[in-house]
Amino acid sequence: MGAYVIRRLLWLPVILVIVSFSTFALARYGPGDPVSVAAGQVRDPVVLAQIRADRGFDLPITTQYYRWLTKAVRGDFGESFIQRGYSVSELLFPRMWISAQLGFVALLIVFAVGIPLGLLAARLAGTWLDPAIIGTLLFLQAVPVLVVIPPLVWLFAVQLHWLPAGGWGGIFSIWWIADVIAIPIPDPHLYIPLVAFTLPGFVGVARLVRVTALEVNTEDYVRTARAKGLAESTVQFRHVLPNSLLPLVTVVGFALSGIIEGALFVETLLGINGIGRFTFQAVTSRDYDVILASTVIFSAVFVLCNLAAELAYGWVDPRIRVGASHS
Amino acid sequence: MTAAAQDVEVRRVRPEGQSEWRLVWNRLRRKKIAMISLGVIILIYGLGILAPFLAPYSYTATNLNEGLQGPSWVHWFGTDTLGRDMLSRTMFSARTTLIVTTTVVLSGSLVIGNALGLLAGYRGGWVDGLIMRIGDIFSSLPALIMLILINATLGVRVIDGVRAFEDTSGIHGLVASGAPSYLLVFGALSLFFWVGTARIIRAQVLQLRERDFILAAEALGATPRRVITHHLLPNVSFLIILEISATLGGIAGSEIVLTWFGVGVQPPAASFGAMLFEGSGVRTFQTHPHLLLVPGAFVTALLFAFNLFGDALNDALHGR
Which residues in A lie closer than 8 A to residue B308 (C-beta atoms)? Predict the structure, then answer.
């Protein structure tokens, strides 16, 4: 097990080097000279040559990459081409924090809603309600996020004035009762992005829970529990539920990747200043060092989440622990 | 999906004289939902195939005097900002979806995914290791961001390349037809959509490889190529069908998203992504909801139908 974890962790830098090098090459060989992006309005050849030399664009690409890499491992991702004077790190990390909070809450809700719905569908198996639940969730998954957001904003922000139309106000805001008692409530900016993030995710969780719950219900140990006269509720909560949740660990990675990619449109459409919107803006304005840094960070988060999911799976279910039979 | 795919031992009860595909089709035919969703898919793809004949107007002809009209008898789905007929744009968007999904399935899943999966599973050793590690890399990339990046950076290069090809070959009209952006979209998508197929095929081949009929074929001196094409391929064909039905929605959705971001199929070519983009402003939605709802309804119907049909097909192939 230990050797396996180490092997997987050693694999991480390899992936990151491949990702960053291909992004690097794409950015350097793409249209629009990065030098002219950095120069802005200036077209003086002397200035252009100066920028080229300063940023090292006159060097071979492998040398450029090596320079970038040695700085990047120390957390220095260079300077933004568009927002001059700001380092990529100081622009990127506050935005990452916003996206991480939003993504984490979304992930919690996907599981908090998906698991009970899956168990419910399993209990109702054989009736028309089971396919109705799953069918509705499948439908919600099919509606593109791009189509969901404008009507939501129109209804709740423009027509009803219940929620703000966009932006970000943190996870909690304080609700004062008579200016004395402070009650933290979910910030109103949260609702629309959370709906957009979570609707497509429910079905994956619910279906997996449903299938495993149906399987677990026919296992010998559940039959034994019933045979020894336990109440059905005890059987469900003590034996079926925990064992139905095991495979969910594997979909955390999937759910998270959906949320990370969803951040691109949700944040862009709702004006939330997170890493998704920032990356999108960087791609459209060719802010090369920002693109590089966010792609590398996205990939690192991706790989780490998948690894964590895999390890967690082995931890919760010793039967499939990798390499367990050999060691 | 993977659990179902690994459950390979399809319960085979084969009455005399009926092919296995016939059996699957018979099971599928009895499922109402499967038939309805298949109908929706055929309808939307049919609109795409027949768009040049069915469309009442040109999908590029603009008429600013008739812009932003709601649905009427003259324009069933209304008109967009530039006064283009939304019904015709919808049909040609369906055509774009049809072209992109077909080409990506053919190249990404059928050719690359299949070939690499068969090769990795049958050869094993370092070939297997190499192919699967490459797959690992692709699946650990944030696909959407990479796709946006690839399309944003390489778009101009591909157009230049096609233009150079036009000059040397004497074939004209490729750039004008918008072919380069299609080429880029399908190339980039194929790059990411082969991994799933390859993994599933490999897992299946690993099991089949030790079976008696394969060992018998090898003992009789069959070449690896013959073993792969005559013995392994027929036994993984149903997995391929399943994988295709499972990825179609993802491919169609990716094209729409890429075009929405402005790096997919380029105007004036019609795409649901471009139509959704035009309708996605809140103010636009308030005054002209049809700009969002018409393409939104088609995309939702298509993706929903893909999901339902994929499920039903999975059931039918597993003897349910």
Answer: 135, 138
